[in-house]
Please model this.
Amino acid sequence: MNARYTPDLEVPAPRREKTPEEATRWIGKNMKRVEDPRLLTGKGKYLDDVVLPRMAHAALLRSPYAHAKIKSIDTSKASALPGVIAVVTGAEFLKTTGPTVTFSSPPVVQHAIAVDKVRHVGEAVVAVVAEDRYIAEDALDLIEVEYEELPVITDMQEQENARGDAVLHPERGDHNVAMDRTFTFGPVDDDFARADKVIRRRLRWGRSGPQPLETAGAVADFDEGTGKFTVHCNTSMYTYVGWLCAVSLNVPATQLNIVPTLAGGSFGSKLFLHRVIVLAAGLSRIAGVPVKYVEDRLDNISNGDAHGSDRIYDAELALANDGTMLGLRYRVWDDYGAYLQYGYGTHGNAFSQIVGPYRINSVQARITAVLSNKCQQGAYRGFGSEVTNFVLERMADAAAKELGIDGIEMRRRNLIRADEFPFVIPSGNVYDIGNYQAVLEEALRMFDVESWRRKQAEAKAEGRYIGIGLVTCQERSVFSSTEFWSLNPPEQPGFTMTSSPEAVAIRIDPTGKVFVQLNAPFWGNSPETVVTQVVAEALTVEPSDVSVGYVDTDAGFNGTGPGGSRYTVMVTGAVVKGVRTLREKLYRFAAHMMECGVDNLELRNGKIGVKGVPDMEKSIAEVALNAHYFRLNFPEEPGFDSGLETTAVYDHPLTTMPAADRRHLGIFYPIMGHMVHAAAVEVDPQTGKVKILDYVAVHDCGTVVNPMTLAGHVRGGTAQGIGTALYENFKYDEGGQLLTGSFADYHIPTTHEVPEHIRVGHVETPSPYTEYGIKGGGEGGRMAAPPLMVQAIEDALKDFGVELSEVPLTPRRLREIVRDAR
Model:
């Protein structure tokens, strides 16, 4: 057997202060969320709760056509309606406000309100600002628009042949192919040449998307006297790339203050709501009053810039006869919709864990990214890596079947060994640490496959069809910003930023209470709870002594915010760094007060004491009081300036640059989680109904901060993964009409479709690169549930000879598959 291929890059040494081996008091304990009291009592302030004096409301006229020129717009009747303040077309909006932000290179231009042409059903054509939303919606019915329809292509593979009027963005070329590139990592040809068996499958991942309870929106107020915008928005990256919205508004960044609100669910969809920010702010400037725009459900589904991946794969897996996986090769067509706001980031996510948990030696991927007459893709929980998990697990199942090897044994033979970490994969990313065999064994212990096989046989005798599944998947966490541009053409890489930090401001008041300001919002995760636990741990204080708040962009600084399962790791790093600075100052004051050396001090139970001398100590509150109000008691040195406050910026703990020729992408998503999910399902072949009988999810997220909230992430992600696998589908007809524009047609699982109890287990392999050894876990069960559901259903229907290769497997689709197999 040939030696394993390893890209030529150097893995940096760990740099951290808090090791996972340290005894902890608060980290690792179940703790009720600090956020919950105000949320559960209805006291939380969400975007729609923001009400400003003289505030007006906006509504959008959406295009009924998938592709058309805008010939003329008559707004006279709408403007005359009592209560209407302004009616704004795309051409009028363009006079003051430029295109919205795009991270694609070369750029795909998108306007908040369409100018000259619409490219998908639901795209905004006219905005109405009125005294209330009802009047604004009524005014939309009075607007007359003349369209000239253009050719529509909705089949992603046919987009390669689009020419003439079917081309969406002629300024980029005479076709709808945004990118067609082949990436080769390692000796692919050699690995396929030495293979005993090559497995081939065509796989389909259908288009779905996040469905937050609260849609996206913004409340903007333009101050004509100062020329400054204040925008309330339920977004995430406001302190990171929010200044780009000021570029769209044609004002300096100092003239835009973005104020975060609570976000009623996001799952990625509110990562950076540049369009709603620019829309509301631009309308406020034109109308001369504060403007609120909140998507309705149709806006969110048809024009929310947040559809998930939509892909077809032709995949090949090279194997030895004993089941050893040698190489992976595929071509993927990816339908990005009408615009390209995040570039090809979903495939960067995929490349970060492209071999899954397996020792696959080489990978080649041809990516054909196309533009189409559909709502564009955005960020959705997994952001493309969940699709790779599906592909790998389907290929592993196919390989096991063709080689006659048990599926669990097939995976066991190929898992990366615990002694091989840090493990460099062919694409150049690093898996920091893991014990995949231990996770598998724990899942097998909890699930008891043999017991379910007996139940399966008993059910078969009764004419019932039970299926069993088990998958092993990755969950990359803590992205590096090199991912944003590394897949762009090397000659046009775009903005090649390399920082995605997180920051906090911490102060201790004269009574010893700790105040922490975050540069990222509450996004449905638990930032206040995490920070409370980490601060209490690092300062040895009680959680009740910690208060957490949020800043706006006027007061905030470096903070990338949640997304990509990064926030717990990154904010913990920032807190540890900030506490280190405060601890040094506390020790300086305390050493002077107790007439001892700084090196002899330690923190213990909210006090600063002399090591080895239990009775010689001062409380943090006592030292803080002196630090704030008794300057003359201390030396005239800068280190004794009054007050106890600091800011701390924490950069990525492990990242490197991609190779110039992209033979590897560098280390860019290395804090690697792992999971094994197992399930038993019962399928009714007559109705296509799938009932989940048992579900086990075992995760390795490194050191667990709060088991209770982490289990919530896993269960919530699993519910979304079940929806992706069995129900959810943004479906367009051949004319580009969206057929699933409401929850009457776009089906999401309810409590009746999700398992009553998802049994969650943990195996902890603390990361050597992060503070306390924490890994990310925010994307949870969605990373594994889709391939697991498909595998278990296929097992249930094996007597029918079905071979499943797609999601979603709706009841109707399952009935069709069974009928065709018969």
Notes: The CA atoms of residues 216 and 295 lie 6 Å apart. The radius of gyration is 28 Å.
